[in-house]
Amino acid sequence: MNFFENKLIMAPMVRFGTLPSRLTALDYGADLVFAEEIVDRLILKSKFVLNHKLKTIDFIVKENEFHKVDKNSNIVENIAYKHNFIAENNTVFRTPPLKENNKLIFQLGTRNIENAIKISQYLSGVNWKSEFNVPNDDDSSPYIISGIDLNMGCPKDYSLKAGIGSALLRSDTEIELACRILEALVKENRPKDIKTSCKIRVLPTLPDTLRLCQTLQKTGIDALTIHGRTPSEKKSDFSTPNRDHYINEISRLLNDSCTIIANGGSNCINKILDIDYFKAETGCNSIMLARSAMKNLSIFSTSMVTRDEVIRKYLKYALIYENEFINSKYAIQQMFYHDGKSDQFQKLLKAKNYREMCKIWKPDTELFIDIADDIYSDSFESHKNNIDVAKFDNVDGIIIMDLHYDYREWPNMQIDNNYRLQFNKFPNPKLALIHFCNILNIPQPSYYSISSPDNRTFKGIVDIKDLQFSTYKWEKSKKIAEQSSALCAIKYISKFLSL
Ligand SMILES: Cc1cc2nc3c(=O)[nH]c(=O)nc-3n(C[C@H](O)[C@H](O)[C@H](O)COP(=O)(O)O)c2cc1C
Description:
alpha/beta, Double Stranded RNA Binding Domain, globular
């Protein structure tokens, strides 16, 4: 039977699909887990480290590459690249091979054949068994991954501009390029029994989609995941219905030669029985879930548990595997989905470290608090003591800077690069930030403010493309607080662009 047959799979999800989510999903019955998409140059700029303490293989971005921006790439591509750092600090990818053995698929963002091959060789070259003293005759796979998946579905602007994700579906020439990447990967992976797959969105018509899938199947891939929406149907709520009938036709035509994995059904999947319905609609026996897994990672189980229980398990893995706090906080926030007003969610937003988070979910044992304390003192405190106020501190999940908006000094305050001139024409940081978002082609910023305990002073928080910015200083009015937070965002982005 094909490796991908009859599987319940956790989908690749940027920032959510890091190690604690994957392990939690596996504990609740997922058969396979996809890691979040990682772009080729990020993994090529990293070195792998055998982490003997955690028994993990870590890919760490080399220190001197940390803030380097490729001048030949466009701004948005660089922002996309930088986002990975913010989510994961300098650990790009972490896997405990003993736990994820035979269950982990690595998703790659690339449009370059040589890079794809290098990455396949790089990942399969890690000899984890000898390093962790696991005997070679043990049943486990010698490789840290079971497969490599090519992302051909991401419709985000930064992917399109970098020519990756669904940009590879844009024309026959692009599809041909994707096929050459897949053929090369199949050739490289197959002798090692590492699987090759790709993930697409459908094209606007069924005949075109069928032709596309046939072309992809001929490359020799082991599996093809189909999200039943087109690349232009990219509203974040996925309100357009998923084209289950396209998937059904494709699976009837191709399932004998490569496994078709159905995706896109989360709007209608809240429990395991709904998965059976999705299987029947799409004619597929392998199903991949993203948003319904994000809401409750126990969706893969025949007896689902409460969100609190899922979070407790997630926290356990986050602490044991020293997942970066910002990333864990982000992932738990996603689990609240449309429930952002609840008390727990508000407490979560305020949590500044694992200790505070553990207090909300009261883990069964003090052990977690102890581990949390270790991590807290290792990373947060030491980082804080060394903090240079001219730089930023992103440990709290919000990027905080020591800046204050004063209209008399605008725009000469700390905008230390050649973008400063452009700001002369804007009366204040908020208006300048709107302009900045327009040039970067990213959604407009949104603002909220919090008041100090005596209600007399405020901090503004601006949310821009999943990043939040604020100041150390409390301001006398909400208006100034928002302007100061916009100043931080501008400072951060302009500093980054000027590197
Ligand atoms: C937060 C989030 C992050 C995502 N990141 C990726 C990704 O890294 N790679 C990818 O191929 N798809 C990504 N997707 C798309 C999902 O894998 C999936 O195709 C889509 O959400 C539809 O499936 P669903 O109905 O089960 O949510 C992401 C989706 C979400 C919600």
